[in-house]
Amino acid sequence: MLDDDLTRRDFIKTSGTMLIGTLAASSGALSVLAPTTTWALELTKLDADSGKVILQVTRHILPHKTLDDAVYALVVKDLDKAAASDAATAALLQGGVASLNKKAKGDWLALSKEKQFDLVKQMSDTEFFEKIRSTAIVSLYNNEMAWAHFGYEGPSWPKGGYLNRGFQDLDWLPNPPADASPPPA
Predict the structure, then answer these.
(1) More confident: 41 or 105
(2) CB of 55 within 8 A of CB of 97?
(3) What are the percentages of helix, strand and coil residues in the chain, rounded to 5?
(4) First-to-final CA distance of the chain
(5) Secondary structure class of 156 (helix, strand, coil)
(6) Which residues pair with 42 in a beta bridge?
(7) Lowest CB count within 10 Å: 22, 43, 80, 131, which one?
(8) How confident is the model at residue 152 (pLDDT cuts 50, 70, 90)?
(9) pTM to 2 decimals?
(10) Helix (H, G, I), strand (E, B) or coil at 42
(11) Which pLDDT does position 49 carry in this prediction?
């Protein structure tokens, strides 16, 4: 139980490393899924600066201008979990972040987006890049927040298949025959 005098901010300060953000006003479908417009991700192995760098690297590798940082943070969460359970992964991620900062002569996040991208591109043949890319493909695209953003309704099977969800029509063809879109049985 929390002491009444302990504020949320004090609790966050004492509860470990956090990556914190706010949903963009334009998040649309994503904001319907989220209970609040503020999100926080507790990091167990990575520090907050590394988490921010990895989030931005992920944005450069798989860019979607209108996809909120909250969805990209799921990649950071999965990488942090992997780093917590495997010392080699932790070293790989920390080394990659350090390498970006070194190439930036200090703070990679302070660079322009174009210069950040150039440095990420230079690292595209490294294990660091591949670890983020391969994790991001699954973490980013296999979650309901990304599905809501992209308009994907989810897998068909638990909901009775595509036929019973209005996908039995062929109105996307220029002149479909009448029997190509029968009513569902």
Answers:
(1) 105
(2) no
(3) 60, 5, 35
(4) 55
(5) coil
(6) 18
(7) 22
(8) confident
(9) 0.70
(10) strand
(11) 93
